[in-house]
Structure formats: structure tokens, C-alpha cells
Write a structure and sequence with these properties.
The chain has 385 residues and is mainly alpha-helical. It folds into 2 domains: 131 residues, no CATH class; 210 residues, MetI-like fold (Orthogonal Bundle). The chain is 76% helix and 4% strand. It is built from 16 helices and 3 strands. The chain has a 3-stranded antiparallel beta sheet. Helix 2 packs antiparallel against helix 3, helix 12 packs antiparallel against helix 14 and helix 15 packs antiparallel against helix 16. The longest helix is centred in the middle third of the chain and has 35 residues. The chain is flat, with a radius of gyration of 25 Å.
């Protein structure tokens, strides 16, 4: 059996297919709850065979599994995994519509749904990685997925899922908190660049400063985020109480000020480190050629060294952006706002669906940021001869 499969099936594919069928058979696929916080009854995919969506999904999984084993064509595997992924999401929506007979009944995806979503997404990603798409092609695939997701949500097919009901019940607040999340993220990135790039340049030009700066910033990274938010509350509260200009700027012990300061402190290390590494990586021959052309030290830095180091610096920016999107979630605990508000409200109310209202957009934002900046960084790298 192993000899027959080895030419066409790798270990990753075998693992993904095995996990998919294991969870489909043994783990609950959805939960039917009488209200938003009750435990409810869970059902596996095979216990829902009276639902057309379940039957179609099992067939889609079967076709995806079969082609994963017998077809060497990456495009065919990619399309089949995408079809199974769409059937998974649409099937959940159809089952929710049929099972949610009363408005009070809540349909929540259970562990099997989320694991199947992860497995099929990994299958799609595996095919894309092996296909070695160019940067603009990856951006095109991402835009296509985003458009399909918008169309799917706008179609109303998922409206009977409990997470969508929670979203519609808080839609104005959701957009307000989403704007605050982006505001904190982009403000952090801008301030980190304004502080981190000069620090990186100084660390590169003055080696004695390099170890001090990097060790200090590394020490900040060891402090847990919630602890750092808490440490900033007392001094900022005192400053707001004793300074009119601080109050005029909106500085206080809670809110956006401690969140923004902590997030900037966490963001400096990747910017500074990648700036130093990028400038160190400029070939000595390039520096000598620039010096031979009569360029001054400043001209060499801004016209030769910084452009060559920029792809590495952009990698640091990607790290900061993805990291900050996640850390802003914790800022909600100190009144910073953002999508983390729904996460912690849901945890306090033991409402998984409310947690998902905040968590799913955060994951999507981080994923989009990572893919876009990775593609930009790759496109800026010098082509090898």
C-alpha cells in the first residue's frame, strides 16, 4: 500500500486527508442552542445526514480526498480544495437556515467545522506554495478570496449563524471599534517608524550604541503586554492629574494613551533590528563604488544603502503590523477600544459567538497584512542574475 501511494502522495497530503476524515466522523460539527449562552446539543457531520448541506459536504470531502491521492496536478488539487472549502462554509449556512426554526435558536459551528476549515485552508496554501506564485499573483488570489467572502456575507446565506446575529445586533458598535482598532494599529506603526528608523540608523553608524539599544528593546519584549499596560496606567494617571497640557491631549491612566505607548515600545525592536541588519547586508563593493563616484556619506546612505536595505526593513514593518493587530486586542482591557472589546465581552458572558465577532476580523486583518507586505517585500528584492 505504501509503495503504491508514495509516488503521488506526500506526507502532508496524507496527514491533512486523515485529519479531515477523523474529525468529520468523531467531533461535533455544529451546536444547536436554545439561547446565546446555553450549552446546547452538538451533532457530528454524519448525524446530520438528513440535511442536504451535510450530504453535499461529505461528497465534496470525498472528491477532494480522492484527487489529493491520485492527481499530480496542483491546479486540480487547488480547485478541488477551494470547492470543498466553499461547500463547507455554504453548507454550514444552509444547515443553520434549516435548523434555526425559531429566532431564539442559535446555531454555532463546533470543533469539526473549525478543524475542517483549517485543514482545507492548509491544503489550498500547500498547493499555492508548491505552485510558487509571483507576488502579484498572490495579491490577485487574496483579492479574489476577499471578494468571494464579501459576496457570501452579503448574500444572506450565513445570516442564521449565531455569530452573524451577534454581529447584526452590534453592527454600529462593530464598525466604530474596527475603526479604533485600525487607528491604534496604524498610529503605532507610524510612531514606531518615526522612532525606530533613526534609532536603527544610529545603531548602525555607532556600533557602541547598538548593543545597548537592542538589549534595552529586547528587555521590553520580555514584559507581558497586559503587565506593561498596567505599569503605564499609574504614571499616565498622575501626569493627567497634574498637567493641563496632558489632559488637553487626552492623556489619562486608561484609554488610548497607555495602549499606544505600550504598543510603540513593543514595535521598536523589529524596526531597529531589521534596519541594522538591512544596512549591514549592503555589499562592501557597492559602498566602494558609491564612494568612488564621489557621493558624500549622506548621499551614500539615502541614495544607495537605504534603497538596498529597504526590503529587509519592510520585513520588519510586516512583523510590527501583524504583531500590533494582535496586541491591540489586549488594549481593550485598559480602555483602548478596538475589536478586542467584543472578545473580552464574550469571555465575560461565556458567549463564544460574541468572541468570534471580534476574533475573526482580527485574524483576517493580520492575514491580509502579512500576505500584502510579504508580496511587496518580495517584489522589491533585487533579481538574481
Amino acid at each position: 500500500m505504501t509503495r503504491m501511494l508514495s509516488p503521488k502522495v506526500d506526507r502532508v497530503t496524507l496527514l491533512l486527508v486523515s485529519v479531515a476524515w477523523l474529525v468529520a466522523v468523531s467531533l461535533p460539527f455544529l451546536v444547536v442552542k436554545p439561547n446565546r449562552i446555553a450549552a446546547g446539543n452538538s451533532y457530528t457531520l454524519f448525524e446530520l445526514l438528513d440535511q442536504p448541506g451535510s450530504v453535499v459536504l461529505i461528497m465534496a470531502l470525498g472528491i477532494w480526498s480522492l484527487l489529493s491521492f491520485v492527481s499530480p496536478c496542483l491546479l486540480r488539487r487547488f480547485l478541488t480544495a477551494n470547492i470543498a472549502l466553499m461547500v463547507l462554509i455554504m453548507g454550514m449556512g444552509l444547515m443553520a437556515t434549516q435548523l434555526a426554526i425559531k429566532p431564539a435558536i442559535r446555531i454555532t459551528p463546533a470543533s469539526a467545522f473549525w478543524i475542517l476549515l483549517l485543514v482545507l485552508s492548509l491544503s489550498v496554501t500547500d498547493a499555492l506554495v508548491r505552485k510558487r506564485l509571483l507576488a502579484w499573483q498572490r495579491i490577485g488570489v487574496l483579492v479574489t478570496y476577499l471578494l468571494l467572502g464579501i459576496v457570501l456575507i452579503q448574500s444572506g446565506l450565513l445570516d442564521d449563524l449565531a455569530v452573524m446575529r451577534e454581529f447584526y445586533a452590534r453592527e454600529p458598535q462593530f464598525w466604530s471599534e474596527a475603526f479604533r482598532h485600525l487607528q491604534l494599529t496604524l498610529s503605532t506603526l507610524l510612531l514606531a517608524l518615526l522612532i525606530g528608523l533613526p534609532l536603527g540608523l544610529l545603531s548602525f553608524q555607532i556600533p557602541k550604541w547598538r548593543s545597548v539599544v537592542l538589549q534595552t528593546l529586547s528587555l521590553v519584549q520580555t514584559i507581558p503586554s497586559l503587565a506593561l499596560f498596567g505599569l503605564l496606567m499609574a504614571p499616565l494617571g498622575w501626569l493627567a492629574a497634574h498637567s493641563e497640557w496632558a489632559r488637553a491631549l487626552g492623556v489619562s491612566g486608561i484609554g488610548m494613551a497607555p495602549a499606544l505607548i505600550a504598543l510603540v515600545l513593543y514595535s521598536l525592536l523589529p524596526i531597529v533590528t531589521n534596519t541594522v541588519v538591512g544596512l549591514d547586508g549592503v555589499p562592501a563593493t557597492v559602498r566602494e563604488a558609491a564612494r568612488g563616484m564621489g557621493l558624500t556619506r549622506r548621499q551614500r546612505l539615502w541614495q544607495v544603502e537605504m534603497p538596498l536595505a529597504f526590503p529587509v526593513i519592510l520585513t520588519g514593518i510586516r512583523i510590527v503590523l501583524v504583531q500590533t493587530i494582535g496586541l491591540v486586542t489586549v488594549a481593550a482591557l485598559v480602555g483602548g477600544g478596538g475589536l478586542g472589546t467584543f472578545v473580552f465581552q464574550g469571555l465575560g458572558q461565556t458567549s463564544t459567538d460574541l468572541v468570534l465577532v471580534g476574533a475573526l476580523p482580527i485574524v483576517a486583518l493580520a492575514f491580509v497584512a502579512a500576505v500584502v507586505l510579504d508580496a511587496i517585500a518580495e517584489s522589491l528584492k533585487p533579481k538574481e542574475e
